[in-house]
Amino acid sequence: MIVKVKEPLPDEWPLLRRGQTLFTYFHLAADEELTKALLETGITAIASETVRGRKGDLPCLAPMSEIAGRMSIQSGAKFLERPQGGRGVLLGGVPGVPPARVVILGGGVVGKNAAQIAAGFRADVVVLDVDADRLRYLEDVMPANVNTLFSDRHTIRQQLRLADLLIGAVLIEGARAPRLVLREDLSLMNPGAVIVDVAIDQGGCAETARPTTHSNPTYCVDGVVHYCVANMPGAVGRTSSYALCNAAAPYVRRLADRGVPAACSDDEGLAHAVSMVDGRLTSRTVAETFAMPFEPFRA
Fold this sequence. Notes:
The radius of gyration is 20 Å and the shape is elongated. The strands form 2 sheets. A 7-stranded mixed sheet has the order 6-5-4-7-8-10-9, with helices on both faces. By secondary structure, the protein is of the alpha/beta class. The chain has helices at residues 32-41, 62-79, 109-120, 132-141, 153-160, 237-258, 260-265, 268-272, 284-290; strands spanning 2-3, 21-24, 44-47, 101-105, 124-129, 146-150, 165-168, 194-197, 218-221, 224-227, 274-277, 280-281. The longest helix has 22 residues, at 237-258.
């Protein structure tokens, strides 16, 4: 068994072989080339991001989402500064000057954590989601400077006109992120506005999003700064390592002690995360994304 944090890189693909189990964050629905390459190796692939807890949550993904959500605001605040190419806006404003407008697409774990930090900065925060129950929950737990809106195409475009900082925080478990911001929509945004697309691991919420690195984190399209680092928690590796180990270690021990079939036989949530076995694709969402043959995993 091999335990990683990120998906295997192309120069690592030839090292993989049938009989190995790889437990890591794969995000296969965003990368067809990786999916096909791993199928050819015949490995058993277990996607950390789709392990389900007993309450239907995603226990291995949650801590990384919490970190990325909180980091999205501090990164966005930095790149709103004029020397970084931004509008020159302070998130919290000052007396007599209004705060920045932070628009968050998605009210899940990333969105909730982003909203909490942005609210602490005293920004003007709006969270958009399609789940009315989730919006009610956020309305109850968030401070007064966080408002909620039901997400649709018209509302998103309306909020883009007001946004200084846009956070892409939409997750569809195991599938590609929906494209909610199109290239043409950037013309609605103010020059120097910032997009932090936390969903870039799953393909990104913005049509213009492409993965970047910590050494070269941003680029500009139509006057809008894009921050699309594909492994945001990697910048705070000490915090991330502890958080990830706390969540993943029980699953790693179970897999090591019992093997994949036995470990999955009494844990449907772990079995759900088995994405491929012996060259067969066992993730329905990935198979549907790429129109590839699907075979259910049976422990």
